[in-house]
Amino acid sequence: MYNCITLIGNLGADPEIKNTSAGKKFAILSLATNRTVASEKQTDWHKIVVWDDKIADILQRYTKKGERVLLEGRLTYRKYQTESGEEKEKAEVHLDPFGSRMVLLGDRGNVSAIKSPDANDAIPSDSALANFDDDVPL
Length: 138
Hints:
This protein is mainly beta. The chain has two helices and eight strands. A five-stranded mixed beta barrel has the order 1-3-4-6-5.
């Protein structure tokens, strides 16, 4: 099974860059995507957590609020408790060090893509699998 989500939208704020206790850089983003329902424009807000330090560095150096980006990562759900003790769940998109992608979609036609190493690169091609004996020993 594969968990992949691709979003194209505008940054709702400048990227928030933080460091883990081990000193690794990560970023937290707010991304707005738009859709039209019954001729009315609606905006959805997405929380993005970028664990890939190279993508976080590019975000810090080259982006700001309002920039259009394409982000590809995995959809995850995080449980938390409110101050009143009520348990809630929220969706987040995580860009991990493997299998994530970011494309800066500049308004002047400038496009810059950053891609993490892909775990799928290790999956053999269909032609390599054609001669594979898949009988399970008993």
